[in-house]
Design brief:
homotrimer; alpha/beta; Rossmann fold; 5-stranded parallel sheet; 4-stranded parallel sheet; about 40% helix; about 15% strand
């Protein structure tokens, strides 16, 4: 298969301080310095949005973003659109949803992406299959050699592959609330085997380089963090701790990153029943966390935060920062769009 | 249920001359003075659109509207988008239709609305369930306490609940064509039991306060205007007249507001057959109306205006103002958006 | 039927040098001079896009385009949106796809189009039924007599009817690469009986008026170019040549316009099997074409260009211009939008 060949051979350009014109498909492109640049720009842009600074709309005026969502994703989709608009840029997308467009009449991804590439300056793509973002970047490189106006790809997540902008907004939120990445216990909870969000976040923390920060992985034994991810983290000098019991780390965690345990992945319902209660965040449980801890969640949330009444109580707790985290998604994406399209200091 | 609790306890803020930052979910928020302000702004904006006044795009420049349509509605959807664009604002929406997005993977309305609230300045929401707009407003209030950039909700209709902007554009159209609300016979025809459009319009006329204006309700006995609406109207001093025979009032009506009788609501087809012919507007019927009457319809229309050939004849009649009514929808929504977002004199 | 009456009696206005306010529904509206004006504007706009000329956004600022796609079409849809945006105009569309909107609850096309006409300055419509664009234009004319802000229709293709903007972009691409329309052999390959793209292109070449240019039609006997199209072309003085064997003309063709043979149209699979191999463009086949030939394709492509690996080889050939052709689609549509909305020299 062509996609497998591409996944094995295509290396996206590392940022190395320069974002302009680079596809964003994996957190592996980011080093410490790149994250600093991005987070600095994010804070600056957030301030300017809140001040209703009209100069913002100069940053991407005249540029066009194509939204190619081959599967739905409310937050990624809406926040990228809002980000581009707030920078003065424009957004195009298939009027009937791209999943109903010619791609489903048999056109391959390579051609659909290049169609959007002919009309747009940047493509934000979400796709259900791992590696799709690498394939899209590979074919855009071919197109960019042919047409005058090169087009950049930003991945909005590809299947169980990566979701780099989610990891970037998660990192930014930790930095925004804790003002540091050192000297923290960051606890990731839930299905750590299949959750691309937690993989990318863990890798990004390792890539940033931290001192005296510990990653705690809380998961049922069958859903532990994959070994290759653990290895990357340990190699970077970050200490890790694994447990299937949240109580081991709850009262020492500075950051609690909650995710869903997907019941549907369990072959044996009894296995799920045996563990599920330890992986539901409730108001009672949050009482046992540190007074200055932050509770994060990539959303959407379901049963892993109890009922809607439980949500209502949790949401009132100042430690629950998942709405701010969601809002930060727009600001981080604004910074990324401005950087890859214009490269300007923002 | 949380929604029922909210419907019983949540009171949306009355306008009282100040629109800025207020959710728009029911006509009960509007008093005489508020309608005057809104209609004045509507006329001013309509004039400026027709003059291609470029200064219009300053009114909502840099502001973002999220379109959340959980069910389709061509006119409400397109006219709100066009309204925001013509004011210089931007529009975001789920690329694949919100009904396919995470809300349908199990996310509750409270969270989906708050996601949009993190990215947009105003949300226009259409929902098939009564009370959904109150619930959305309630949760946005919670979010607005947490984030710096408060978000306003405007209801685009929620099930058999209210459709406040339809009532506002209907009122404006009457005022626009008749130059007054006093001394009129306003006749509402069709399914007055289930039609939210006619409920809201009747309530709004009562709230405005009129002199010597009569509301005539023409409906089959089984589809009469609900008693609680009649009571509100009578309490306000507006005279009402009920009949199942259009001929009783056709030649004395100044405003004829036509709506559909939904065949599918009849348990017994014979009941429908017995009445249907008296509730179809045709060119022959319109001949019997006053020379200066206006014929309104919220659209879409089907059999209640006969065949497409009948439509073609009716459409040529200068008394048929439903296209102007439809166009006014955009202008009223422009006024509302400018008012809730900026509060400025427009 | 009303649509048939309209198709027989409605004559769209010829351009005759003036585009402003005219519906674009058929190539029959264009004469030599009109194409010259349009292609001149296209080149100018392309240059300005590539220079990131910010003055472009003045051309359609404050104007609104409604996208009504009753069937999906990635390229037509995205390129029209991008075209309008790059001219500074705005785009509205049904949030859930127009095919799910009230038109599918029984509203007729005449009313849906007029709803969009109340809010937008131009409507781009794609429809699966032949004649739909004529019907839409006919009813917009009626609406335009009623409201102050007239709305123009541009057809994005209607069933097996016409797809005029595809023919215009095809023509432009030939002119752009060959710098002339005279002294060429233009070869159209594939299903010439059912392909509206090749019909419109052939008619447009005839309307332009060319000297010493030959049209070669390569198709299986059962899928030959319809006689009425051949007659139009011959009447115009263009020489035609018909064959079912590409080899007869491949090495003398200056333009090779490839299209798909739709296997599903064959009643007898053996008939398809007997011819299919002569209608697949491959790298080996392209080797036998002239060194300065151009290979065009309206896209999307499937088996008629072999496998994805074949695509990859063909795409590298400088004679394969279908990506440039696709990109030109946006520029031609920009020129058309600017011309019908503003009429200004661009």
């Amino acid at each position: 298969m062509i996609r497998e060949m591409i996944l094995q051979t295509y290396t996206p350009a590392p940022i190395e301080g320069t974002f302009v014109g680079k596809h964003i498909v994996t957190v592996d492109q980011f080093a410490h310095k790149d994250l600093e640049i991005l987070f600095h720009a994010t804070m600056s842009l957030r301030k300017r949005v809140r001040e209703h600074d009209r100069g913002l709309t100069e940053l991407c005026a005249g540029r066009v973003m194509a939204s190619l969502f081959f599967e739905a994703s409310t937050r990624t989709d809406l926040s990228f659109q809002a980000a581009m608009r707030r920078l003065g840029g424009d957004v195009i997308g298939a009027s009937n949803g791209v999943q109903f467009s010619s791609v489903y009449k048999g056109e391959n991804l390579a051609d659909t992406v290049r169609a959007a590439g002919c009309y747009a300056d940047v493509i934000v793509m979400r796709h259900p299959q791992q590696g799709a973002s690498f394939e899209a970047a590979y074919y855009l490189d071919k197109l960019n050699k042919r047409i005058d106006n090169p087009t950049v790809l930003i991945s909005g997540g590809d299947g169980i592959g990566e979701h780099p902008t989610q990891a970037l907004l998660d990192m930014f939120t930790i930095f925004d609330r804790k003002k540091k990445f050192d000297d923290l216990t960051i606890t990731l909870v839930g299905d750590l085997r299949n959750g691309r969000t937690v993989h990318s976040l863990a890798k990004l923390i390792a890539r940033y380089g931290v001192t005296n920060t510990r990653l705690a992985f809380v998961a049922p034994d069958s859903l532990r963090m994959p070994e290759n991810i653990c290895e990357i983290i340990n190699t970077s000098g970050v200490e890790t701790y694994e447990t299937d019991n949240l109580m081991d780390v709850l009262d020492s965690s500075d950051v609690i990153y909650w995710t869903r345990i997907q019941e549907e992945r369990f072959e044996n319902p009894a296995d799920y029943d045996a563990i599920k209660d330890r992986f539901i965040m409730t108001p009672e449980l949050l009482k046992q966390a540190k007074a200055d801890a932050i509770l994060m969640h990539p959303l959407p949330r379901k049963h892993e935060m109890g009922t809607q009444s439980d949500h209502d109580v949790l949401d009132e707790d100042p430690r629950a920062v998942y709405f701010e985290q969601m809002e930060n998604g727009m600001f981080v994406r604004m910074a990324l769009l401005a950087k890859v399209l214009r490269g300007v200091y923002v």
